[in-house]
DNA sequence: GCCCTCCCTCATGTATCCAATCCTAAGAGG
DNA sequence: CCTCTTAGGATTGGATACATGAGGGAGGGC
């Protein structure tokens, strides 16, 4: 995902020229990854000159990146003292998931209430079928993980897009802009859990298509909440 | 969400040096106001040199401001083509209120569930009493509006702070970062409406103190939803 | 007459330079 | 021995100079 932003489906990114990116945008993407991956230690001060050198750009585009990431909440800024990597604790991740559960639930409610465009319904059905195929073996092989993850992302992103509320969409993305809190990173080796999770997807789409807003919302909220519990138990070890 | 949150009550703003602000921060604040006030026409292209001149700064801090506002969603950016003022429609405001109703409702649920610190409860009670006094006359005089508005802001901000979820707080602020969508701008001349709204506040606090999470959440959601309806009717005229 | 191309101008993106601020540490005084 | 003061270097903030890509108009070809 070299030239791609973290959220490939972001409207602006794909509609406008994805090829011509400024160094500032490039630096933003790279630094964001570094922070989310933990390459930069929490609390670490970011000195501009060495950082710019390591990125092969001058201080100007670097500063643009720092401003961006500070506003995304990944960095902290103090005037005349520079930027530091934000310290994230379990509470941050917990808070992110708590909000995300509500927001994605709301998105499902919106989808159920407004109705899905046929094209979107088809895409979602395709996601479910793809998941079915991957899980058909009875166990999720290591080779099956990347496509499953991609399917998972597309399912959630499609719902967010169909909710037609740019704030919900943006906010959900922001909750994923926290180390460890991205659903792109899940490492559920437990087949039973992933099976159940995929079953949630089936029920969610069914509820939405049936116009059952409250049910779809409750299902999605639980879906995300449970993902948090799994992640929490995993992080505790 | 990080660096600039346009709400003076933010702890970071007042605790850290409020005096020493960088020109970039200054320019961000000024430009943000200009966009929210409509001083800059929607869709208008922002040329950097004249803008910098009008702000009395050079392009460097100006660009910092543009980056900030673009990520706040107030401006749109296209590489090598510059920034334009985002066009906001009724749907944007409606979406903002819809999300805000949910988020502030969630914040109330959190407050009720976690319990309020005594200091916060005292502040909220003081808000209610202040509102009672202002409305005691039986009609809201023009001189009564600013203090009522300040009280209203403090009430909501206090609840958001007590929810102890930085995402909720940040997201609510972001939904207010939309022209016309700030609760600082309400112009309810109708005394009955404002009376009812203040009664909501009373009930919300009572529900929270009684640990009635669902009730507090429902009350706040309705409180915000109704504010939207009033605003919508007002904008239609 | 219409369209295509080339070139010129202007705006943006990037680099560098200068100024202001902060941190450190050494030294003097108590 | 501790503390306060004060330079010095280092780092960030802001201004300006340079490079690159976008847009528009004039001119020529079809």
Automatic annotation (TrEMBL), chains A, B:
One Pfam assignment: GntR
CDD domains: WHTH_GntR
Keywords noted in UniProt: DNA-binding, Transcription, Transcription regulation
Domain HTH gntR-type positions: 21-88
Recorded superkingdom: Bacteria
GO molecular function terms listed in the Swiss-Prot or TrEMBL record: DNA binding; DNA-binding transcription factor activity
Family annotation (Gene3D superfamilies): GntR ligand-binding domain-like, Winged helix-like DNA-binding domain superfamily/Winged helix DNA-binding domain
Protein name in UniProt: GntR family transcriptional regulator, vanillate catabolism transcriptional regulator
Species name: Muricoccus roseus
Organism lineage: Bacteria, Pseudomonadati, Pseudomonadota, Alphaproteobacteria, Acetobacterales
């Amino acid at each position: 995902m070299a030239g791609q932003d973290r959220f490939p489906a972001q409207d602006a990114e794909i509609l406008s020229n994805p090829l011509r990116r400024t160094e500032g945008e490039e630096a933003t993407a790279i630094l964001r990854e570094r922070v989310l991956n933990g390459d930069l230690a929490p609390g670490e001060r970011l000195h501009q000159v060495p950082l710019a050198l390591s990125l092969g750009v001058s201080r100007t585009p670097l500063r643009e990146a720092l401003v961006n990431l500070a506003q995304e909440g990944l960095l902290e800024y103090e005037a005349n003292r520079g930027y530091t990597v934000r310290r994230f604790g379990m509470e941050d991740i917990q808070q992110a998931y708590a909000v995300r559960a509500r927001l994605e639930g709301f998105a499902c409610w919106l989808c159920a209430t407004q109705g899905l465009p046929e094209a979107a319904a088809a895409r979602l059905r395709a996601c479910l079928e793809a998941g079915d195929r991957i899980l058909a073996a009875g166990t999720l092989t290591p080779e099956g993980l990347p496509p499953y993850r991609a399917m998972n992302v597309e399912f959630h992103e499609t719902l967010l897009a169909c909710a037609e509320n740019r704030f919900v969409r943006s906010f959900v993305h922001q909750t994923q802009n926290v180390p460890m809190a991205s659903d792109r990173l899940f490492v559920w080796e437990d087949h039973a859990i992933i099976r159940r999770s995929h079953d949630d997807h089936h029920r969610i789409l069914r509820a939405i298509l049936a116009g059952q807003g409250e049910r779809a919302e409750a299902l999605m909220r639980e879906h995300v909440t449970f993902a948090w519990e799994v992640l929490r138990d995993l992080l505790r070890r």
